[in-house]
């Protein structure tokens, strides 16, 4: 049993209504409910936190560093392309992290092509809609199993 933090950045609370042709029809609540049941089936505890505020995301990362969290699945949303502060908070947490994006930032505006997180992530999963979260959870599970075995 591991505690896995799923962290979502700004505007992701508007999933389902926000640009549905890009981000899909599912609400964040539906995505999180699916993750919680998948997590339970895999024997993990899913903690979810979404904020539109950079400082709140940073504070949550600081808490995760000390509360027994074992893994981070992170969609920094627009902060992907702007936030050195959040990058530093991820590094300070020392948590293994998978970066996720519902859309494929490389197929969109050029300013979305740079991520402050990809080079510090174990991997990045993007462009597959809400499925990126479930895929990241499966990958986190596999990685945690491998770590336990070593
Ligand atoms: C996003 C991609 C970002 O470029 C954008 O600012 C978001 C969402 C995604 O999940 O596709 O808010 O992270």
Topology, number of strands: 5
Instruction: Give me the strand/helix succession.
Output: EHHEHEHEEH
Radius of gyration: 14 Å
Major sheet: 5 strands, parallel
What proportion of the residues is helical, as a percent range?
40-55%
Helices, by number, come to: 5
Shape label: globular
Mean pLDDT: 97
- The side-by-side strand order for the widest beta sheet comes to 2-1-3-4-5
The share of residues in extended strands comes to 15-25%
Q: What low-confidence regions span 5 or more consecutive residues with pLDDT below 50?
A: none
Structural category: alpha/beta
Distance between the termini: 16 Å
Q: List ligands, each type once.
A: 1,3,4-trihydroxy-5-OXO-cyclohexanecarboxylic acid
């Amino acid at each position: 049993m591991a505690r896995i933090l799923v962290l979502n950045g700004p505007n992701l609370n508007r999933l389902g209504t926000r640009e549905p042709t890009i981000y899909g029809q599912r609400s964040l609540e539906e995505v999180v409910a699916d993750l919680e049941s998948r997590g339970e089936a895999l024997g993990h505890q899913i903690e979810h936190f979404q904020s539109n505020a950079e400082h709140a995301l940073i504070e949550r990362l600081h808490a995760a560093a000390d509360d027994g969290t074992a893994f981070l699945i992170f969609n920094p949303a627009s902060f992907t392309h702007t936030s050195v502060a959040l990058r530093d908070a991820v590094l300070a947490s020392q948590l293994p992290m998978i970066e996720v994006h519902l859309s494929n930032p490389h197929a969109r505006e050029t300013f979305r092509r740079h991520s402050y997180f990809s080079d510090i992530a174990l991997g990045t999963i993007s462009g597959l809609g809400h499925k990126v979260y479930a895929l990241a959870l499966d990958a986190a599970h596999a990685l945690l199993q491998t770590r336990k075995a070593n």
